[in-house]
Amino acid sequence: MGKVRVFSEKVLSARCHSARFGARLALVGALALGCSAFDNSATPSHALGSVGGTQEQGGSPSNGGSSTSANGGGGGSAGASTQASGSSGSAGGSGDSGGSSNGATSNGGTNNGGASGGTSSAGANSGGANAGSAGSSNGSCSDHPLTPESMWIATASSSGGTDVPAQAIDGNADTRWTSGKDQAGDEWFQLDFGKDVTIKTVTLRLGKNTGDYPRTYQTRLTDTANNTSATPQVTGSGMDSVDTVMTFSSPTTGRYLLITQGGTTTGIWWSIAEFAIACGG
To answer: How many CB atoms within 10 Å of residue 29?
Structure first.
C-alpha cells in the first residue's frame, strides 16, 4: 500500500513539472511575441523618416505630416492633405508646382488677357481719328458731287473796274475777272461751292488776255474760308497763252477753293476768263 502511494506521488510530481514547463514555454513564446511587437512600434529610426519624416517628404514620423520641403503645400505624401488632389498638395497651394505660378496671374490674369487685348489693338488709334483725317484728301465724287455754278460765290483780293469775281464763273469766256493792278504776289481768288464737293482738276481759262496768267500759284481746298495757313495741295506756275491746269494728287473734298498768286511782274495783271472744274481727269 505504501509503494502504491509513493508511485502516485511521483506521477503527480511529474505532471506538475510538465505543466510548469509548458507554462514556461508559453510564457517564453508570449515574451517573444511581445518583444517583436515592441520592436515594430518603437520610436522610428531614420530609415522610416526617409519616407515620411522631416528629411524629404512630409512632417512628423510615418507617412503624413505638415512639412513642405520638396513638394510644397501643407501635406506630405499621404497625410491629411494629399498631394495629387488635396487643397494644398503638390498641385496646389503656394509650393513649387502650384499656386500663383501657374494660376491667375501668369496664364489667366493680367499679363495675357490685359493690355495686349485691351485698348491698344481695338481702340481709337487703329480705326478712329487717323482714318477720318485722311478723308479730306481722298474723297468720293459720288458722295460729294460738284454743285451747280448758280450756288457758287466768288470773291477776290481786288478787282479792276467792272471785271468783278462773278464774271469768272458766268459761263462767258469773253468776260473776265482781273486784279486791276500789277502782279505783286499778294493776290488771291476764292470760290465757295456752298457745301463740300470733291474735285480733282481746276482749269483757269485765259480767254483773250493770254499774258495775264499767274506767275506762281498755290491752291488749297478746305472747309475754312480764306484759309491761307493750310498747306497748299497744288503749286506751280502758269504759262503764256496756255490755260493753267491745276491737278490734285487725288480727288479732294472741301467747300472753299482758294488760289493765291505769289509772283511779281510789271504792267501785267492777273486775270481769269472762266473756271472749269471737274472731279475726274
So the answer is: 10
Domains and CATH numbers, the chain: 149-278 (2.60.120.260)
Residue 148 gets which letter from DSSP? P
Q: What is the pLDDT of residue 25?
A: 54
CA separation for the pair 253, 199 (Å, rounded): 7
Tell me which residue has cell 492633405: 81
* Residue 272, all three cell numbers: 481769269
Q: Are 255 and 197 in contact (CB under 8 A)?
A: yes
Q: What is the pLDDT of residue 126?
A: 34
Among 226, 211, 212, residue whose Cα is nearest residue 259: 226
Q: Is the pLDDT of residue 210 over 70?
A: yes
Amino acid at 101: S
- Mean per-residue pLDDT for 256-274? 98
Is pLDDT at 13 greater than 70 in this prediction? no
The answer to whether 49 touches 61, Cβ cutoff 8 Å, is yes
- Global model pTM greater than 0.85: no
Supply the pLDDT for residue 39: 46
Residue 270 pLDDT more than 90? Answer: yes
Q: Residue 159 class from Cβ within 10 Å (0-12 exposed, 13-18 middle, 19+ buried)?
A: middle
For cell 491737278, the residue is 247
Strands 244-261, 187-205: parallel, antiparallel or unpaired by DSSP?
Answer: antiparallel
- The rounded distance, in Å, linking the Cα atoms of 278 and 98 is 71
Res 62: pLDDT = 40
Q: 88-116 in b/e burial notation, b at 16+ Cβ within 10 A?
A: bbbbbbebeebbeeeeeeeeeeeeeeeee
d(CA 134, CA 123): 18
